[in-house]
Design goal:
This protein is an alpha+beta fold and 400 residues long. It is built from 10 helices and 21 strands. Strand 15 and strand 16 form a beta hairpin. The two termini are 27 Å apart.
């Protein structure tokens, strides 16, 4: 029982956590009411950092043709007079193609299927499809949960990976600091006439950014990109009603035909955006990971990467504690995880919140400041290279 962990939530973060724990010889019960034989489609596209991609590969995931390297990033400030043909900054691989990719894109649905297949093959994981926690008790000796279908579980720890509206977080009485952005994210996949050449495009409009993330070809289209478009809620809901040709045309008009004629690939998805930080990541016998612990603005695509860092850190903390005979569910052990992750997550969340506010300010002076900052960063190539190396090494700690 002291090696048994209940993982509540089987989204990509929960699936990765269950897989990582089982591969370290923990016994895992994985539950989620949304698991079924036919997973509901999700139109999101993830941009994995190199460190996140390496971590998933160490778990045995083979992304293969589902993943596309991002070789360059092109950013445009489109306030006021709108976008022109020049980007304010480009960065990525140097001329000649040297260096590592900036990121690796993958569709949510593809990633989830690959993770589920790995979980199904992994020993040590009991998967409870379409199941709920009916009752939950926590004490000095461990946890006890009654699950749907008259199933009971006893173990040392519950890991809450049950999303932004986490029931485990709420029932534990963990408070959050949060505020809505009054913005809605619209995500989907577009096909387009011209090749993306591995370039991710991000256009900053007054209401929010519009990003196009390169995707690999599939059987139906050679040139594809993931769309992440932040808009006011009424505008986003109106865009979601467009047919595939209308949506593609609207995006094409916004970005000055950089990728040629476009059209949507299936209906886009919508999700409300908010800033959210849990004031505590742990309680005795409970640890929060992923969206249950934090929610950030999507302008840098870091939400899932933050969740994977939570997973890697928590698993390392638990393994270290078990090796020296400590109770993995004790508050003393779990506070080690909180110390390692809460500061980093808070700093990144607040930094993204600040960028959202800077790029959302109308007027010529904020525009001048934005462009000056982007221009200075673009000119300081040695500094930028140093920062990229530091960021890369910092990220790689999660796979050691």
């Amino acid at each position: 029982m002291q090696d048994s962990v209940l993982v509540a939530g089987a989204g990509p973060v929960g699936l990765a956590l269950a897989l990582a724990l089982a591969q370290r010889d923990f016994e895992v019960a994985l539950i989620d009411p949304s698991i079924s034989d036919e997973t509901a489609p999700d139109s999101r596209v993830f941009a994995l950092t190199p460190a996140s991609r390496d971590f998933l590969q160490k778990l045995g995931l083979e992304l293969g043709d589902c993943s596309q390297p991002v070789l360059q990033m092109a950013i445009a400030d489109c306030h006021g007079e709108g976008c022109d043909d020049e980007f304010d900054i480009r960065f990525g691989q140097r001329e000649g193609g040297e260096g590592e990719a900036l990121a690796f894109t993958v569709k949510y649905g593809d990633l989830r299927v690959i993770l589920e297949n790995c979980v199904n093959r992994q020993s040590g994981i009991s998967l409870y499809a379409n199941s709920h926690i009916e009752t939950f008790e926590s004490g000095d000796s461990g946890i006890r949960a009654a699950l749907t279908g008259d199933v009971s579980f006893e173990g040392a720890l519950c890991c809450a990976a049950d999303g932004a509206r986490s029931a485990r977080r709420r029932e534990a009485g963990i408070a959050t600091v949060e505020h809505p952005y009054n913005r809605t994210g619209l995500g989907g996949v577009l096909t387009h006439e011209k090749p993306h050449e591995g370039v991710a495009y991000q256009y900053f409009f007054p209401a929010g950014p519009l990003a196009l993330l390169p995707l690999p070809p599939d059987a139906t289209a050679l040139h594809r990109s993931g769309l992440v478009w932040v808009e006011k809620p009424d505008v986003a809901h109106a865009l979601a009603q467009f047919d595939s040709h209308e949506l593609g045309h609207e995006v094409q008009q916004r970005i000055n035909d950089n990728l040629g004629e476009m059209q949507g690939e299936g209906p886009p998805g919508l999700w409300p955006l908010s800033f959210r930080l849990a004031l505590e990541y742990v309680k005795p016998r409970l640890a929060l990971v992923g969206d249950a612990a934090h929610g950030v603005h999507p302008l840098a695509g870091q939400g899932f990467n933050m969740g994977l860092k939570d997973v890697a850190t928590l698993v390392n903390v638990l393994e270290d504690a078990r090796r020296i005979g400590l109770d993995i569910g004790s508050l003393n052990v779990l506070e080690g995880y909180q110390r390692r992750r809460r500061f980093d997550n808070t700093a990144l969340a607040m930094g993204l919140d600040g960028l959202h506010k800077v790029f959302g300010c109308p007027g010529s002076l904020p525009r001048f400041v934005r462009r000056l900052g982007l221009s200075v960063l673009d000119e300081l190539t040695p500094l930028r290279q140093s920062l990229e190396r530091v960021a890369e090494q910092s990220g790689r700690r999660i796979v050691q």
